[in-house]
Structure formats: C-alpha cells, structure tokens
Design a protein that fits this description.
The structure holds 2 protein chains of 2 kinds. Among the domains of chain A are: 96 residues, Roll (Ubiquitin-like (UB roll)); 210 residues, Rossmann fold, CATH 3.40.50.740; 147 residues, no CATH class; 95 residues, Barwin-like endoglucanases (Beta Barrel). Helices cover 26% and strands 17% of the residues of chain A. Chain A is built from 26 helices and 36 strands. In chain A, helix 9 runs parallel beside helix 23. The longest helix of chain A has 18 residues. Chain B folds into 2 domains: 60 residues, Arc Repressor Mutant, subunit A, CATH 1.10.10; 84 residues, Glutaredoxin (3-Layer(aba) Sandwich), CATH 3.40.30. Chain B contains 7 helices and 4 strands, in the order ααααβααβββα. Chain B has a 4-stranded mixed sheet with strand order 2-1-3-4, covered by helices on one side. Chain B starts with a helix and ends with a helix. The model of chain B has no long low-confidence stretch (mean pLDDT 95). Classes of the chains: A alpha/beta, B alpha+beta. At the A-B interface, strand 7 of A face helix 4 of B.
Chain lengths: 905, 159
C-alpha cells in the first residue's frame, strides 16, 4: 500500500496504480476522456491534469497527467490548485472549439461524459468565434449511428474497436483538426462488439441506432437490473422502457461476468419484446387447426381447468430460455416425473455431460473474468464469437496476459496501454484453437487445428495424455499433430491459470469429456486447471439442474399412451424436435402453450397464454458457470401478459390445487423452489427480498428526473394514476423512492451527481475495476470437487474418414440469426445470413458444385435445398450447416448427409 | 491492379521489416512515384500485399500530407507558408502563382500540368520565400523568377 497526499490530505491506496485511478477510487471528481477503466491510460486527452509537488516544501509544483503518473508512496498532488483548474478548463475549451452546440438534438444529451466534464471543469463561455470544421458522416449499418462533428479525438473508439475487440475495418484517418474515426468507406461495422462504441465514446459520435428509432432520454427511461437472454453467459444488462416500448439495452457492470461490455446480439436483440408477433391476449382454438380466437383471461383459465382437470394425463415441456421459476411452476403443475426439458435427446445429453464435468470433477468453472485473466487458453470445438460472443472477447484479452507479465522487465506500468502495446507489437500469449472451421479469434491464436469432431477428440485425448492423465496414448496420430499436442500441453502446464474452453455447440459429447480430461489432468497436477463450458441458452444450466426427460422421452410417453395433454412453456418445439416428433405433438388431444411470441408451437396449440418476456417479469437464470442471477421486471406489459409462473399458478388454482401452488409472489415461488430442490437453496438469497427497503423506501425504477408523469397518461385521464404495485421486488414503478445506492443485484442504473453517463460506474465500485459496492451479485450453485477421485474419459473415436458420397455435417453458429429471440429484432435480422450450406472449395470442386449453386441436402428424412457457400477452412469431407437461422429446420448435428445437385426441371 | 514493377518494389521494401505493415508509407510512396497519386483501387491492392485492411492502410495514407489520395497534376508546386517565408512575403508568391496558373491553392490547372499546394516549411529559411516543384527547391522567389521557373516546366513538356 502507498500513502499519497491529495490537497494535503493523506490517503492510503494500492501500490502500482496511476493517480487517476487512485483518485477515482477515492471518489474525487477528476475529469478525464481517454482513460477507460477497462482500457487504461494513453495520456492522449490531457484532461486529467493535476499538480504534483516534490515534497511538503514545494509550493510551485508542476502539472502532470494523473493517468500517466504512478501513485507512488509519498506522492503529493493537488486537484484543486487554481492553475491546474484553469489548465483543465482550457483543455475543455480547446475540445469544444469544433464541438457542435447540438446537445438538444443529440442522442447522447443527458448522459454525455463531455457534458459532465465540461460542467465539472467550469468552462461555460465560448470565446472561439470562427467556423467549426465539419465532417461527412458514414452509414455504419443498422446498429450504430455516426456523427463525426461531435468528435473530441480521445481515441477511445479506435482503442476499443481495434486493440480490444480485434476489429480491423475501423480506423483513424487524417490529422490535426481533421482527425476522422470511421471506416475506409461506408458500410456495416464488421466487429461483433461494435455496439460498445456507443458506451465507449464520451460524446455523441457513436449512438445507438435502434434507440434512435424510438428515442428517449436516459432520464425518461424506466430501468431495472436484468440479465441478457441471448446466450448462456448471463451478461448483466440494463434495459430501458418508456410508454410500454422497450427502447434499449445498456451494460450493467459485473466484475466476474461481463465487465464493461456487451456483444451486439445482447445489446440489440431486445426488439423482439416490441415485435408484432407478440401474443398479448389468451388465445383459444375450438378446432386445433382452426382460427385463433382471443378470449378473456377468466375464460382461458376455465378452459385450462377443463383440459387439465379432465382426468387425462398431462405432461409438461419446459424451456431453456424460461426462468427457473417458470420451469419449476410447470414441473409442479405436471409432477416431476412428467416434466420434460424441451430439448432434443442429444441436447439433453450434452447439457448433462457439461454440468457433470463441472460438478463431479476437480476443475472449477471459469468465469469470463477468469478467462480474460488466463495466461493460456485452449478452445475445443467452439466458435466463441458466434456461440458465446463475450467469452470470445474475454479470450482475446487473455492473449495479452503472459506478454504483459514479460514487459515488467521493461519497467513499464501495467496500465500504460500504449507503451505495453508498443512493446508487444503482434506478440500474443498462448491461445490454441481446435475447431472444425476458422473462427474470428484465429488472428490472435498461437496455433489453430482444423478437423472433424472425432479428430478434435483424438487431439484433445492426446493432449490429456501428455499432461499425465491416466488415459491411453492416442496411437497413429500424425506426427505433426502429436507434436502440436505436446506443445499445447506444455503451454498449459507452464501457465499459472490455464483455462480449457469447450461447449455444447459442436454437438460432440466426447469432445466435452475430452476437454474435461485436459482440465482435470491440469488440476490433478497442481489444482489450477479451469474449465469454461459454453451452453446454448440463458437458462440451459438451470434447466439442466432441474432435470427431466428429453423431447424424445416426451414423444415416447405420448406414443405409449401415457399422455393426452401437453403443456409447453416458452418453447418453439420446431427448434428442438424433428418432423416426426412435431407431428406426434400435433396429434395429442390437448396442446396448451405459454409464450410471448407466435411460432409453430403456439400456432398448433388449442390454448395459448401470453407470457411475459425478460423485461416484463422477474426471473432467475443460471449462466454457463452455474451462477444463478436475478433478472427484474422493467415495466408492466400491455394486455393480459403476465409471468408464466403466474399463469401456471392460476391454472392450478383453477383446477382446485391451491395448496400445491400457494405462491402468490416471486419470493414465495423462489422459496418453494429452494425447498423442493436443495440444489437451488441459494436462489432465494441471491437478491434482497420484496420487503427490503432503504430508509423505509423502495428502489425507484424511474430516475428522479423522470418527466411527464402527470402528463403521459393525460389523453386518457387528467388525474395522475397511482404507481403500479410491485408485489415481487423491492423496486417500484415510480420515480419516488430511495436515492441511495442499492445493493448490487438491485442497481437499476448508473448515475451519480455530476456523472450522468455510464462513467458513473466508478461511483458504484468499491474501487476502479473492483466489485460493485456490496460484492459481486449472483451465486454459483455448484462447486467443483477438488478431492474427488478422477475418472477419466478413455473412449477414443476412430480417425475421421471422409466418405465418397456423403458429407459429415457440422453445425455453424451465427451471432446474428442462430439465436431465436434476437433474430426477431429488425437490426439483427438485417445482419442475419440467409440459410446456406458451407463446403470447402476443394470438396465442392470435387463434386462439381459452384459457389451459389443450390444443392439438396438429405438427412434423416429431411430434405432441404440450400445455396452453397464456400468456407475454405473446412476439413475434407466435412460440410457446415448454419444452425437456428430463420427458415432452417432442426437436425441433430453432427451427422452424415447426402448432397445432390438441383436438377433443372 | 499494381504493375509487376510496383509489386516487386513493394515486396523488396516489405522484406526489410519484421511486420509487412511497417512498409506501408514506403509502399504508398512507390505507388505514388509510378502513378503520381494513390487511388482507392491502388490503396486496396497495396493493402492486400501488406496483409492490411484498406482502413488500416488509409489511416497511414491520410496521415501523410504528401501522399496524395486525389489526382494531382504532372508537377506539384509546394509553396512554403511557414514563419520565415511568411515574414518575407510568401503570400505575394502564392497569389502570383494562383494568378499565373489560374487555380487556387489545392487545385490543379485545367491542362493537368500543375497542382498548387501550401506547405508548412520546406527547411530552407535562408532562401525564403521558397517553393518546391516536384523534387526541386527554388528560393529567393520573385515574380520574374517564378515566370522563368514555370516557363521551364512548360517548355520541357512541349519540347
């Protein structure tokens, strides 16, 4: 620890950090632009100037940049010195020379770091009376808006996009007053993290284009802490609503999970909540194939009671995108042995395998923060950028870790970002990627290996063997590959915090288990291998822990006559079941569905209940590391929409089973869940209960500046309505409430006096980059077994053999399109590729197929004509099939398929 | 498309560095020597050769004010407007050139012969005011001397 003196007051701070970080951690108002807590210092903007004194006797001092000066023991500085205050105001004045006075029409207004810093420095009168330079703006695609005239050239956008996110289509051009940040020419930003420019930019150069379509100021948005539902990572978010429309998603900092950033799927996928395909009212079909009739809530419940109470046997099909509470309510309605998980058999097996690896072995689950801080990463079978984008971001950061360690001998501080990158050049730490096809992380990979899934397993097993696991060596491995396995094994073994990344998207259970072998072998050596397993959906892990059969099991139950009625919860079964299973489900006597969007299953259902989305109901979701996190209702939805668990509870009441479904509030159902299933015991403690108050008050969802509360409903009633009650959380649907900082799980937005932008985050952290005040939220439901006897997986598949007239189809994921909900957001839909089939150019040439030509894919009775796209990195005999794209049918992959050319007819 | 000659020159330059991208400024100068300016197409061709994206290379190209990203005339006239030349009357030199050529600074004559550009310091203060035409420096400029210099370039082309 070091003692520093700020305006003659002593403060104890951590060693080795810079003065700006120390001052912000201590709560001082010191303005800055180019520094960012996740991107450290470059000393470009000269805004964080302080005066440094040699010793107590020095009264003259000298001006230094706080972000570039070490907070060494005994450092004496002044923030309030008049000269340095004038200096800071002068810097702002220069920055404002060309900055337009367009705050009233700027989307950033009201949450603009430049506004905040201008006010903070006291620069308030413009002396510059000449023409401002102007720029032409670029069209950067459907997600990010560009307005270059507002730029103050802090370089944060470029640093984030190029240095941290790995984008290469965005750069800085020209010099002096003409410095321009953009693409070489107009076009869609290619990087999957481009939306972070909106939060990284300290002013309004980059703004959220989807928000522009239904613009609302930050102070007019009703917000609540939420969890992203578009992949299994569980990034923390802040959705904002006004007038019943969800308007945007912002990042909610979580040290262990997503840090300061979100991927574009997570940021822009929210518009499905406003989709015209939403179901807003109960629907009844007297004939299954007949027209849908909207019915009143009571009539729908009576109908449900008639179906459920008829004595016919009922099964329930849950969902990996529904909350724990919703799945638990369905499980209670139908009974544990009649609850099915709504996943294909293969999906269930993969999920169970992944959870077992984390629960039964010695290797702990790696959080995204663990992955980012790892000094050696092995990725097996996952195209992370497309299956778990923010994990790809973390892994990219990991490649700097070992090299930053090596720069210590250069006496460069770890936070001196430009110097570190200059010293590193293009050197990156160990990252090995073994996947069927190229990934967007390959540019920072030490080595890549492209092979069919079975060969990936063989490679991983050879690696595990090299690490000393008691599994037999892999014979007949090509010499080059055996050498690579040894190199990777050595890199992992020498690392301090190695992480093995795998997941379910490859479809190979053996690969998962082989990945487990590698991590376990590392753990057995010195207890330090971490395992990071990617799961497909926001609550896959939770559903896995809840248990239950697969869709195939459900079909068997129907076939065997053990079920006449099926209740489907928030699940489009056509995404998980093949044609035969769907037909079977279509033929059950009664099909009841609960969901928020129309799809094949709700279209076939006799009775449909309008369920609430993540933004309209509370829920607990368990992310891929097993961390249960609470997501809160943001707003009260229109129509009859309510949380699925409430519908299920009301159905049980309607059939006279009140005693079993006594939960009236969210707290009561989580308590019931915790009691019924001990694995979920922690779920009721991950966030404060409904009765929690701060100084007797609730936490307001609306900021204290929320405008129009007396006017926004005036067209209906001039009397101001009573704020809606929230029986489920300590948050209120009002601007009234405690203005104190709530505990982390309840933080509805980041704002502090003088800090209107996202930069207010440092006011909510225990220290810069530390946990939020009160500790990291969420809790892991499973822990590894460090002392358990390890039972290695010893199966070894045969070497992959291409077949003469068949292709092995492997899944290809797309960040935009493969996930069901986000694909319905117009911005994401615009970036979603049309269905296609991927072939390597040489394989296609062998089969005499041209790029763009249509071929018919035949597999398991599935026939689909798809245009061919070349994917040069695919191994021989392997073809890629995009998964989950709108218009694609469900197939279990990997699997063998025949291709035939479409004959002109 | 780059010519074989350009490609060989650029590759030879790139071979001298640990990272190909380090040859960016030199590669752009090579293209400019052959074509007088760097078009969008040339920029993309060089980027491919140096394993860069067009954005990365254009960041380099637009940083240097003597890499021309727009077409210039057969001769580029750089008029120094820095301190010494300013004190010794660079503005009359600039205005005279403008009048003689019929173009404003930043423009190219209709016959495509001359492009007139301002330049911050040519490093020849002892001979101020100065200008540079292509690679030749001319000092102690007077209207008469400028006439002679321009006439020389005109004669050279018609000869």
């Amino acid at each position: 620890m070091a003692t520093i003196y700020i305006d003659n007051q002593p403060y104890v701070v951590k060693d080795g950090q810079n003065l700006l970080r120390a001052c912000l951690s201590l709560g001082f108002n010191l303005p800055y632009f180019c520094w960012h807590p996740a991107m450290n210092s470059v000393g470009a903007c000269r805004q964080c100037a302080v005066k440094q004194f040699k010793d107590e006797k020095d009264t003259k001092g000298r001006i230094v940049m706080a972000c570039m000066t070490l907070a060494a023991d005994g450092t004496r500085i002044s923030i309030d010195d008049p000269e340095v205050r004038r200096f800071r105001a002068g810097v702002i004045e220069f920055l404002m020379v060309n900055h337009p006075h367009d705050c009233p029409v700027c989307d950033e207004g009201g949450e603009c770091h430049l506004q905040d810093m201008t006010v903070m420095t006291g620069h308030n009168y413009r002396r510059f009376r000449f023409r401002k330079r102007t720029h032409r703006n670029q069209e950067l695609g459907p997600l990010v808006n560009h307005e270059m005239n507002r730029c103050i050239a802090c370089y944060r956008c470029l640093r984030f996009y190029r240095d941290y996110a790995g984008g290469r289509d965005f750069d800085v051009f020209q010099w002096h007053n003409y410095v321009y940040f953009g693409r070489q020419s107009d076009g869609v930003l290619e990087n999957e993290f481009s939306g972070n420019l909106v939060e990284v930019c300290p002013t309004g150069v980059f703004t959220d284009k989807t928000l522009k379509g239904h613009y609302t100021r930050k102070w007019d948005l009703q917000t609540a802490p939420s969890i992203c539902v578009h992949c299994g990572l569980g990034c923390n978010t802040i959705p904002g609503e006004r007038y019943g429309i969800l308007r945007r998603i912002r990042n909610r900092y979580h040290r262990e999970v997503n840090g300061y950033f979100l991927c574009d799927r997570g940021r822009y996928g929210y518009e499905f909540v406003n989709s015209p395909r939403r179901i807003r009212q109960p629907i009844f079909r007297s004939e299954r194939s007949g027209a849908a009739q909207p019915v009143e809530k009571q009539a729908a419940l009576e109908q449900a009671a008639k179906i459920l109470g008829s004595g016919e046997r009922v099964i329930g099909i849950g969902s990996s995108r529904a909350s724990l509470e919703a799945n638990f309510a369905l499980r209670t309605l139908v009974g544990a042995d009649r609850f099915y998980r709504g996943l294909a058999e293969a999906e269930c097996r993969l999920l169970d395998t992944a959870i077992a690896l984390l629960r039964d072995g010695p290797a702990p689950a790696a959080s995204m923060s663990d992955a980012a801080q790892s000094d050696a990463v092995l990725v097996l079978g996952e195209d992370l950028t497309n299956t778990a984008p923010m994990l790809a971001y973390s892994v990219r950061q990991s490649t700097l870790q070992r090299e930053i360690g090596l720069t210590k001998r250069l006496h460069v501080s770890w936070w001196d970002d430009a110097a570190i990158r200059q010293a590193l050049q293009e050197r990156r730490g160990p990252l090995y990627i073994a996947t069927p096809a190229a990934t967007k992380l390959d540019d920072v990979a030490t080595e890549v290996y492209r092979a069919a899934p079975d060969d990936l397993v063989r490679f991983a097993q050879a690696l595990a063997h090299a690490l000393g696991a008691e599994i037999p060596p892999v014979s007949a491995l090509p010499r080059k590959l055996a050498a690579l396995a040894d190199v990777v094994a050595e890199a992992l073994y020498l690392a301090r915090r190695p992480v093995v990344v795998c997941g379910t998207s490859s479809g190979s259970e053996s690969l998962l288990r082989a990945a487990g072998n590698v991590a376990w072998a590392l753990s057995a050596a010195e207890h330090r291998g971490q395992l990071c397993l990617v799961l497909p959906d926001c609550n896959s892990f939770g559903l896995g822990l809840l248990g239950g059969g697969s869709l195939a099991d459900a079909c068997r139950a129907i076939q065997e006559g053990k079920a006449e009625t099926v209740v489907v919860l928030e699940n489009d079964l056509s995404r998980h079941a093949d044609q035969a299973a769907l037909k079977l489900l279509d033929e059950v006597r009664h099909l009841v569905a609960l969901d928020y969007l129309e799809h094949a299953t709700t279209a076939a259902a006799e009775l449909v209940f309008p369920a609430a989305t993540f933004a309209e109901a509370n829920g607990t979701l368990v992310n891929n590391e097993g961390r249960a996190q609470r997501s809160y209702q943001v707003f009260v939805p229109q129509g009859k929409t309510q949380a699925s668990w409430r519908w299920l509870q009301e159905m049980m009441v309607a059939v006279g089973r009140q005693a079993e479904a006594s939960w009236r509030s969210f707290d009561e159902i989580t308590a019931a869940l915790a009691e019924a299933l001990p694995i979920f015991a922690a779920v009721k403690d991950i966030a404060p209960p409904e009765g929690f108050r701060m100084a007797g008050q609730r936490v307001p969802r609306q900021p204290h500046r929320y405008s129009g509360r007396t006017a926004m409903h005036a067209q209906a009633d001039v009397h101001e309505p009573t704020p809606l009650a929230d029986p489920d959380s300590p948050l209120s649907f009002s601007m009234e409430g405690s203005q104190r900082q709530p505990p982390p799980p309840l933080v509805p937005r980041f704002w502090a006096p003088g800090w209107n932008s996202m930069q207010a985050i440092t006011r909510f952290q225990e220290e810069v980059n530390g946990p939020l005040r009160g500790g990291d939220s969420g809790r892991r439901l499973i822990e590894p077994q460090p002392d358990a006897a390890i039972r290695y997986f010893s199966d070894l598949p045969a070497e992959f053999e291409p077949r003469p007239d068949e292709w092995l189809l492997v899944p290809v994921d797309h960040i935009f399109g493969s996930e069901e909900l986000s694909a319905l957001s117009p911005g994401i839909a615009q970036l979603t590729p049309a269905p296609y089939l991927a072939l390597s150019a040489s394989d296609a040439a062998g089969a005499n197929i041209q790029e763009g030509e249509k071929v018919v894919l035949a597999m398991d009775g599935l026939h689909q004509a798809l245009p061919v796209r070349f994917l040069p990195s695919l191994p021989r005999g392997v073809a890629g099939l995009p998964v989950g794209l709108p218009g694609m049918m469900h197939v279990t992959l990997p699997g063998w398929a025949k291709l035939s050319k479409v004959t002109a007819s | 498309m780059l010519t074989d000659e350009e490609r060989h020159e650029i590759e030879a330059e790139a071979a001298q560095y640990a990272y190909k991208r380090a040859a960016g400024p030199e590669a752009l100068k090579i293209v400019q020597r052959h074509r007088r300016w760097v078009s969008d197409q040339s920029l993309k061709d060089v980027a491919v050769l140096l394993e860069m994206t067009p954005a990365e290379l254009d960041g380099v190209a637009t940083f240097y004010n003597l890499i021309f990203r727009k077409p210039v005339g057969r001769h580029v006239i750089l008029v120094c407007d820095s301190v010494t030349c300013w004190v010794l009357g660079y503005d009359s030199v600039r205005d005279y050139l403008s009048r003689e050529l019929g173009v404003k600074p930043g423009e190219t004559t209709a016959d495509g012969r001359f492009t007139l550009l301002p330049m911050v310091c040519l490093g020849a203060c002892d001979r101020a005011p100065v200008m540079m035409v292509d690679d030749t420096l001319y000092g102690n400029l007077t209207p008469q001397k400028i006439d002679e210099i321009l006439a020389g370039y005109r004669a050279e082309e018609t000869a």
